[in-house]
Design goal:
about 425 residues, mainly beta, Cathepsin D, subunit A, domain 1, 20-stranded mixed sheet, four-stranded antiparallel sheet, binds 2-acetamido-2-deoxy-beta-D-glucopyranose, aspartic-type endopeptidase activity, PEPTIDASE_A1
Length: about 425
């Protein structure tokens, strides 16, 4: 078992708890979290210890989520939580100017003179208002190879929700872990608390039986057998959508989500003809390409979806692959009969998301493009997003699995590994056995 470096809590009423004082005594260079895939919702789940006494809380991983939010109405028991008082440093740090009182039974989610934010269930697109609070959060550190001693953040900022906001989330889950680009997103708070690089990486598992991994901080990110994935990443700029994509927001708020600059799409190395203006933001922040862990499959605006699927069908047909009836939510399915296998999944035409130049592309192989829906059929794992969706392309979970993505907030760039299957490893190959 890992030893715990608990930080002495300043629980005295008169101690001013400034953010800069909230430094833990143990300074790891990186932290690690396990991430499972829920078989029924296809959500990616993590859990880590919180509160006093420490309890493990299960959460849905929301890559573009603004912050950590949890249900405070039911079962939030902690002697260490403190509400963020109106006009405090905490409120301004979290950009919360909304202040209020509460007239029901006092609990972590119900306090007077406390500022609030809008926790967002990005699965159901529902947002409510909830108090900003601080409490203890505790994660295992890592040297990139194994988990190590526990690092504790005594005054982690999170938002309370009511129980109803959990609707649509996997069973047993108590909230969402937002990894988005805000000062109080998990990556920024951990980087500030432990003074490590404002970088984090996600490596989602394709298996509902084995854990993938999230690293906070810089590499190495080592998967068995000794593959340091951080050494061979391809980089592309991240873009900020100036208009929030949250379910509820104030005018002027930017999006906390991670957008990349897809310039064109190729199928079997042939360029697909697209309306390029859909690939950038318009003045209302509509358009562009983002990465999401709450959408199980990639979603494309209808004209893009049609162009890509038509090109794919044409290329697959020339390989003697035959179509069969579609199985929802997919629109294009094939018989397994003439489809061979490769190290990176079904032998189908590769799909390239071409980024800042022709030579920088995210290649999607069979393991990330084809979803097996029955004993004899595979479907192209893309979904039609309708005409004029908020974001033209949402790269979803299935396309991210067994690829490592590193988000570098300071340099505003994404590093991606392409399929780890090429390197004979997967995202479920992090060695979660603790050192020592
Ligand atoms: C907030 O203050 C009001 C008025 O003083 C009081 O009625 C209410 O119970 C307080 N709420 C909490 C949660 O303490
Ligand atoms: C804080 O909110 C204001 C207005 O809603 C917005 O313009 C600003 O970008 C926000 N700042 C951060 C750091 O989110
Ligand atoms: C391309 O997309 C933009 C944005 O939706 C739209 O205004 C325009 O009419 C489209 N152009 C064509 C040729 O379809
Ligand atoms: C497809 O099938 C035809 C007829 O059976 C055959 O001649 C051709 O070589 C096949 N092509 C491929 C790419 O397998
Ligand atoms: C996993 O890590 C533990 C602790 O360092 C080590 O004893 C074990 O050999 C590792 N497993 C593999 C398969 O390398």
């Amino acid at each position: 078992m890992a030893s715990s470096f608990q930080f002495l809590l300043f629980s005295l009423l008169f101690t001013s708890i400034s953010l800069s004082h909230a430094q833990p005594s143990f300074r790891p260079n990186a932290l690690v979290l396990p991430v499972s895939k829920d078989a029924s919702t296809l959500q990616y789940l993590t859990h880590f210890k919180q509160r006093t006494p420490l309890v493990s809380v299960s959460l849905v991983v929301d890559l573009g989520g603004q912050f950590l939010w949890v249900d405070c109405d039911q079962g939030y028991i902690s002697s260490s939580y403190t509400p963020a008082r109106c006009r405090s440093k905490q409120c301004s740090f979290a950009n919360s100017t909304n202040c209020g009182n509460c007239f029901s039974t006092p609990n972590p989610g119900c306090n007077n003179n406390t500022c609030s934010l809008t926790p967002d269930n990005s699965v159901t697109h529902t947002a409510t208002r909830g108090n900003l609070i601080q409490d203890v959060v505790s994660l295992q550190s890592t040297d990139g190879k194994n988990p190590g001693p526990v690092g504790t953040v005594p005054h982690f900022l999170l938002t309370c929700s009511s129980t109803v906001l959990l609707e649509g989330l996997a069973s047993g889950v108590k909230g969402m872990a937002g990894l988005g680009r805000t000062p109080i997103g998990l990556p920024s708070q951990f980087a500030a608390a432990f003074r490590f690089h404002r970088k984090f990486a996600i490596c989602l598992t394709s298996s509902t039986l084995a854990n993938g991994v999230i690293f906070f901080g810089d590499g190495p990110y080592v998967m068995l057998p000794k593959v340091d994935v951080s050494q061979s990443l391809i980089y592309t700029p991240l873009f900020i959508n100036p208009v929030s994509t949250a379910s509820a927001y104030s005018p002027g708020d930017a999006s906390a989500e991670y957008f990349v600059g897809v310039k064109s799409i190729k199928v079997n190395e042939k360029r697909v003809s697209l309306n390029a203006s859909l690939l950038s933001f318009d003045s209302k922040g509509v358009g562009g390409t983002k990465i999401s862990t709450v959408n199980p499959y990639t979603i494309m605006e209808t004209t893009i979806y049609n162009a890509v699927t038509e090109a794919f069908i044409k290329e697959a047909t020339s390989m003697n692959i035959t179509r069969v009836a579609a199985v929802a939510p997919f629109g294009v399915c094939f018989s397994l009969k003439n489809i061979g296998g490769t190290r990176v999944g079904a032998a189908v035409p590769p799909i390239d998301l071409v980024l800042q130049s022709e030579s920088v592309y995210w290649r999607i192989f069979g393991a990330n493009s084809m979803v097996q829906v029955s004993d004899d059929a595979l479907c192209l794992g893309f979904v039609d997003g309708g005409l004029s969706p908020r974001t033209s392309i949402v790269i979803g979970g299935y396309q991210l699995e067994d690829n490592l993505l590193q988000f570098d907030l300071a340099r505003s760039r994404l590093g991606f590994s392409s399929s780890l299957l090429f390197r004979q490893t997967t995202c479920s190959n992090f060695n979660f056995t603790s050192n020592a």
